[in-house]
Amino acid sequence: MSWPGAFISFEGIDGSGKTTQLRRLASFLSARGHAVTLAQEPGGTRVGGEIRKLLLDKANSDLRAIPELLLYFASRAQNIEEVILPALEGGGVVLADRFTDATMAYQGYGRELGGDAVRCIEAIACGGVKPDLTLLLAIDPASGVRRALDRNAHQRDDESRMEHESREFYRRVAEGYDHLLQAEPERIKKIDADGTIDDVAAAIESEVESFLSRRSPKIPRGSRSPA
Predict the structure, then answer these.
(1) Radius of gyration of the chain (CA)
(2) Per-residue pLDDT tens digits for 21-63
(3) Phi, psi dihedrals of residue 132, rounded to the nearest 5°
(4) How many helices and strands in the chain, by DSSP H and E?
(5) CATH level 3 topology of 6-214
(6) Are the CB atoms for 93 and 31 separated by under 8 Å?
(7) For residue 13, what are the CA distances in angstroms to 18, 34, 54, 144?
(8) Which residues contact 141 (CB under 8 A, 6 or more apart)?
(9) Where are the domains of the chain?
(10) What is the pLDDT averaged over residues 139-143?
(11) What share of the chain is helix, strand, coil (3-state, %, to 5)?
């Protein structure tokens, strides 16, 4: 699919700094006149917010792999119709905190459901919508999970279900992201997330500026506020 706007997603292991860097990029682009819309995954809409509670609450440790997969895509489908497509069709820049690459890494590889299962449901739920550019924040899985657990201990401990998975699970997730990077190097760009917040932000800004400069026609600029 094509649209006048630009769709950029952030990916990486939990604790890699995605959300912080997404907000930094949103401010960077807004200051340069771009109309920026933020799309949370899972979540981003009222319905998606309810699904997010089910998926991330540590009390739901009995949630099985296939229901988990379907819930992620249900939230994503709502987000596409309600938030993402309208913004892209309006010529804005959409920044998504995860998208289908995360589902492939976490459920396809981490849960070992396989790529075919993910792609089959993606075809129905996403209807061909995928990011134009994906920024993969690379960090050691063990370090990332430690960061995420520390963050949740001080903020929202109810959203720590995924962080309690085994090291082997996160090894498979990291392997999944590596396979995706190798398969689509033009779309997925690896960002070293071990540096300072400012260093990582600078690398991301450089990558995004290069990407936007290559797009034709140029992404329109406007006054729309971030969602």
Answers:
(1) 17
(2) 999 999 999 999 999 999 999 999 999 999 999 999 889 989 9
(3) -80, -30
(4) 9, 5
(5) Rossmann fold (3.40.50)
(6) no
(7) 9, 28, 20, 6
(8) 13, 167, 170, 171, 173, 174
(9) 6-214
(10) 70
(11) 60, 10, 30
